[in-house]
Amino acid sequence: MLKGTEVLTTAQMRAIESAAMASGQVTGLDLMERAGRAVADQIRLRWPKAGRATVLCGPGNNGGDGYVVARLLHRAGWQVRVLGMDNTPGPDAAEMKRQWQMIGGIAPLTERELRNGPESDACVDAIFGTGLTRAPEGEIAAILAHLGGSGGRDHRPCVVSVDCPSGMCMDSGAMLGQPRTGGGFAPHARLTVAFDSPKPGHLIGLGPVLCGALVVADIGLQSWRERTLDGPGQRPVRLQAIWPGFDIPDQRFRSPTATLGKHSVSGSHKYSHGHALVLAGGPAKGGAARLSARAALRIGAGLVTVGPSREALHEHSGPPDALMRLAIDDAGGLCDLLADKRINAVCIGPGCGIGRAADLLADLLRARRATVLDADVLTALSRNADLMAGLHGDCVLTPHMGEFARLFPDLAERLEETPTQGPAWSKLDAAREAAARCGAVVLLKGPDTVIAHPDGRARIHSAFDVPWLATAGAGDVLAGMITGLLARGLTPLDAASLGTLIHARAARLFGPGLIADDLPDIVPQVLRALQKFQSSSSVATALPMT
Ligand SMILES: NC(=O)C1=CN([C@@H]2O[C@H](COP(=O)(O)OP(=O)(O)OC[C@H]3O[C@@H](n4cnc5c(N)ncnc54)[C@H](OP(=O)(O)O)[C@@H]3O)[C@@H](O)[C@H]2O)[C@@H](O)CC1
Ligand SMILES: Nc1ncnc2c1ncn2[C@@H]1O[C@H](COP(=O)(O)OP(=O)(O)O)[C@@H](O)[C@H]1O
Ligand SMILES: [K+]
């Protein structure tokens, strides 16, 4: 994978910082100075004219970063007011506090001080970072509520958060002590400057909404990151973000003469791009399967066949003409068809009907094809433990939250609980646990999509900027895209990741007003853009991750 896609847990981040400091080549003070400088620089980029800042410093090292920001903004000509706690922090933060005190005073960190102080252009939130262990209470909870607009929308300060909006668990994107769905007052940052790598909480749960624009600043830890996470005897980096820098796992997107598996693309034919089968349902239910089939064709499967029941076959006679149609009446018919080994990927669920999906699934799973399971078949699966036991490593399950709750009710319930302690149970944990239990890749949909492999690898795709993707049939298109990529020979994890990326990019390109039918036909445009991006991947690695 290209650099720049790793997502670190807070525990991994702490381990990397400790390794760096233990090496003797860098001190905690150096790191804190770099972190504070990164935040101050980002503020100055956005406000080129020196203004007024209020800096809120908490009891630990996040507060230490805040004292650095205060000093550097003061040096740049800003009028800086600091609110801090009357405690003795660790030695690095204590030193940064001392340096600030040589410049200016520290008012008490109270909601009253904040509310009654002069207006400021930027309010720097350096109260809690990775050290948050429990839900904030009392005075600090009141300050955080004020940052979230409890004093009225017009009084909501322009917040710049250091590492994360304070009170947010960086492993889950949940606000400790508040409902998962939001609704409580929480700091809504205009900008969040995180260090070294994003954490899961920046990308899932409430994180993307609370963080505002996310900047990930390099504080010089890269070589320790590599040694700590990838060194001999260490666990590999197991979590990645699907965003610029993500390595497209299909050679075709790199160069026209590249190879795909064993087949040279230049000398290839349609069967070397795979044959996808989309199982459709009975009469009057064909739309969803046709959306999937069209998406599978557009994304590059060599052949696509749609397989409804015999009485529904005539409904599938419309375009695209490239699509093949074949009646599949029952499991026997499916087995006969799957005797053709060239059919290497199957999509089951969209518009299939729960009963028919249940009837076909056991034999389909026994045929051991790469299989996408979506919609109706997920409901069938949730009602039948034997079917669930038949899942295998070439399966991709694509539930939305409602379907996930039917399949894994205990995991979904845990996600509903109000988290009180960090690290809080997250959508990432739920998807990973589900994948481990069922032995298949689980793609848990939403604006934050999490894709988990049974071996613990996982990927996160954040698409909070395309709310219009939540439209009827969009999931059917995604299932078809993944099926097409499986037909092309991608692994289930890669097909799910690339399908998710292309799906959201198509929605972004189309813009508001999108209906699911529009998505497949935007795919060629997205593929062209991806091809260009990949052929200039050295540029891509240098792109700032904003
Ligand atoms: N390590 C490094 O070199 C670098 C670290 N960096 C920076 O350090 C940050 C991590 O620092 P950190 O570990 O000191 O944790 P931090 O987030 O400041 O909070 C800990 C304090 O809060 C307290 N506390 C927790 N929850 C609470 C609650 N609900 N209500 C009240 N108190 C609560 C907790 O108290 P305790 O739980 O012990 O009672 C403790 O006193 C990181 O995000 C980054 O910004 C950068 O400078 C780069 C180099
Ligand atoms: N708020 C949102 N922002 C961006 N994407 C979303 C949002 N909500 C859902 N999605 C995406 O839209 C698609 C909807 O799929 P699904 O719920 O299965 O719809 P359907 O069953 O109608 O096809 C999924 O890919 C999901 O990740
Ligand atoms: K913070």
UniProtKB/TrEMBL annotation:
Can you give the residue ranges of the YjeF C-terminal domain? 253-530
- Could you tell me which InterPro entries the record lists for this protein? Carbohydrate_kinase_pred_CS, CARKD, Nnr, Ribokinase-like, YjeF_N_dom, YjeF_N_dom_sf
Q: Give the protein's cofactors.
A: K(+); Mg(2+)
Its EC number(s): 4.2.1.136, 5.1.99.6
PROSITE patterns registered for this protein in UniProt: YJEF_C_2, YJEF_C_3, YJEF_N
Q: What keywords appear on the UniProt entry?
A: ATP-binding, Isomerase, Lyase, Metal-binding, Multifunctional enzyme, NAD, NADP, Nucleotide-binding, Potassium
**Residues engaged in binding (6S)-NADPHX:** 61-65, 129-135, 163, 288, 351, 400, 476
**Binding-site positions, K(+):** 62, 125, 166
Signal peptide extent: none
Q: Which residues bind AMP?
A: 445-449, 475
UniProt family annotation: Belongs to the NnrE/AIBP family. In the C-terminal section; belongs to the NnrD/CARKD family.
**What does the UniProt function comment say about this protein?**
Bifunctional enzyme that catalyzes the epimerization of the S- and R-forms of NAD(P)HX and the dehydration of the S-form of NAD(P)HX at the expense of ADP, which is converted to AMP. This allows the repair of both epimers of NAD(P)HX, a damaged form of NAD(P)H that is a result of enzymatic or heat-dependent hydration.
Quaternary structure, from the entry: Homotetramer.
- What name appears for this protein in its UniProt entry? Bifunctional NAD(P)H-hydrate repair enzyme
Q: Which organism is it from?
A: Paracoccus benzoatiresistens
The gene behind this protein is: nnrD
